[in-house]
């Protein structure tokens, strides 16, 4: 009895996916660059890094996980996860002392949102790189 | 590090621009669709920005 062969995915093992995800997290767009999607990788790198840099220059605050009431926990832990999703950008800015204390003012507030959103956009880029690496997407 | 002092409009413009680029790149399957979707998202951001702005203006009395 003939059996149909499943379509071969370019990289479906954990060993092949891990470098794409790790590099994509550390450097926005690097997952795409590793998979030879140069144009898209460069666009993602510019967009996520640009957003993060604008957030820093607007003196946005970095979130730290805090416990307390439910809303405080969700906002601060969620914000921290969003910040850390930017990978090396977040780590470098913390190590080099660019993280600012939370200040009043609409520019700082926008900056804080820019920093978190840069991380969330990097998560979207990671998911896209994962789908390409797993062969689900071109 | 230089400091950016942006108005609400400038900050919303930059936010829309960066977000539209990423959403356009990761969402669709062809370059043409990506460009169209990125522009569509950008326009949607601006429609929402001006719509909510006027809503707040009239709601404020």
Question: Would you give an account of this structure?
Answer:
With 138 residues, chain A is mainly α. Chain A has one domain. Chain A contains six helices and no strands. Chain A has helices at residues 14-26, 30-34, 38-57, 70-84, 88-95, 106-133. Chain B has two helices and no strands. Chain B has helices at residues 8-27, 31-60. Chain B has one domain (17-60). Chain B is 82% helix and 0% strand. Chain B is flat, with a radius of gyration of 15 Å. Chain B has 61 residues and is mainly α. The interface between A and B is medium-sized, with 29 and 18 residues.
The low-confidence parts of chain A are: none
Mean pLDDT of chain B: 93
Main interface: chain pair and counts: A-B, 29 and 18 residues
Would you tell me the structural class of the helices and strands of chain B? mainly alpha
Strand content of chain B: under 5%
Taken in chain order, the helices and strands of chain A follow as: HHHHHH
Helix content of chain A: 55-70%
Which structural class do the helices and strands of chain A define? Answer: mainly alpha
Specify the number of helices of chain A.
6
Rg result of chain B = 15 Å
Q: What's the count of strands of chain B?
A: 0
Largest beta-sheet details of chain A = none
Oligomer: heterodimer
Attribute tags:
heterodimer, A: 138 residues, mainly alpha, 6 helices, 64% helix, globular, B: 61 residues, 0% strand, flat
Task: Give the helix/strand layout.
The complex is a heterodimer of chains A (138) and B (61).
Chain A: H1 14-26, H2 30-34, H3 38-57, H4 70-84, H5 88-95, H6 106-133
Helix pairs in contact in A: 1-6, 3-6, 4-6
Chain B: H1 8-27, H2 31-60
Helix pairs in contact in B: 1-2
What's the gist of this structure?
The complex is a heterodimer of chains A (138) and B (61). With 138 residues, chain A is mostly helical.
